[in-house]
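Consider the subject:
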Amino acid sequence: KLIAIKQRPTNLKENAFITFNEKEGKIAGKAACNSFFGEYVIIRNTITIEGLGSTKMFCEGLMDEENQILTNLEKTKRFEVKTHMLYLYSLDELLLTFKR
């Protein structure tokens, strides 16, 4: 479940989350309004997210946050996992924070 975008808390609850299919190297989730999907590759603590796509519904009041989520997923280069938390970073900036 997404809890912060660039360290700003978000209250999207079950409307923003990410899942990883380790066997197939695929991600899927929801970004405030629309579902998204793509592929990922992990090497040590680096992650590359590729082929990111999403459904295209319009949801009043959620599109700005949704665009931020998808844009930040595309910028993700590394990650950390600590005590049920997933932190996604560009090279030097914390982009998205998820809680299990």
